[in-house]
User: Fold MFS general substrate transporter from Amniculicola lignicola CBS 123094.
Amino acid sequence: MVLTEPIVLFLSLLSGFSDALIFSFLESFGYVFNQWNFSKTDFGLAMIPLLIGYVLAYFSFFPTISRHNKLRRTNRGDKLNPESRLWWLLYVVTLLPLGILGFAFVSAGPPLPRIAPLMFSVLIGMANYAIYFATIDYMVAAYGEYAASATGGNGFMRDFLAGMCALYTGPLYKKLKPKKASFLLFGMSVIVCVPVYVFYWFGPSIRAKSKFAKKLAEEKEVRNAKQEGPKRVDISAA
Assistant:
């Protein structure tokens, strides 16, 4: 499905790049924060802003989930197509390139305060969690019984790209220096974020060309027709 389904391919690339970026941080923090003479304990504590970003992103989804549940309770859940799962991500995903861009500007070392890069890593942590949450949720909604294969492709790309980052992060930051290396990652992040908007606006037509999603839609129509049949009979009998 990674090779044949554009939804799985491009959203998995986004999720994989986002995860690779987090693992790149584990490598790049050594080059960036050595400029402030961080100790080993300081390096460990530098991971806390990422955790803060995850927690903030987790709670940021509550209003959207509550609104969707309210629609389901009022029998308007049929209006919630799979693309509705990407709505909040349209906004939060922008924090990924913004966080990297800000990190690039303030990673040049003293006299800039050392807290500046840490503040931007909060934004990157928020985007990373939101990307994982929303893309998996969207694939489950779009592919139904095939969701295990779709999300398996997502998991493969995340693990593969995150593993590859250990090979290039060190040479990248040594050759280009922290600021230029972060600018390069910023450009890549802008590119991989574009599919979120494409699938949100054009997802229905893209899914219509997918044999997996098309089959699920046909099965759903059949189930709905069977459920509506007895209701019409009961009304006429009354």
Q: What stands out?
A: Residues 6-209 form a domain with the Growth Hormone; Chain: A; fold (CATH 1.20.1250.20). Confidence is low (pLDDT under 50) at residues 231-238. The first helix runs from residue 6 to 33. Residues 14 and 192 are 5 Å apart (CA to CA).
